[in-house]
Amino acid sequence: MREQTYRPLLMYTIDMSMVEEFQFFCQVIKDESPSSTARLGYYEMMMWLNFNDEENIQGVCDYIAKNDGEDTFDLRESYLLALCESERKENILEVLEIMDIKKLSSVDSVAKIFQALGRLSLEPVAEKLLFDYKISRIPLQFVQSFCWIHVKLGRNKHPNSYKISIH
């Protein structure tokens, strides 16, 4: 089952605070398409964020911290991407300290993290991550696109305040 099929339904149940229905549909999706399990983590976190459920949000962050194996990376990535859509700086920073974002599944995922860092005015963290990318020999075009996203977002908040160079 493709995400474009179940996304509207899950987002509706989240928006309408229908927890039991959300859990029911997630189970159906997992049963029909086990490969969707990791991506469903995104929606689970979005639900807890929508309800501002501190206990479950912290529970997910604890899960990320305790389960750092390759077999759980996709699920943890989905949780992180949902967190990046929130204003929860502390949780985002906590997860970024644990996860190696150089292993994320796509450039789009990394871009979403840098967008969140720019939006939340977490420039020192973004600069550290850019430096990590630079020294890990990630292809230059990826690093440059992250810089562009970060600089563009930063300039919207603080004109003429960024001078990032990649050599």
Automatic annotation (TrEMBL):
PANTHER family: OS02G0132600 PROTEIN. This is Pentatricopeptide repeat-containing protein.
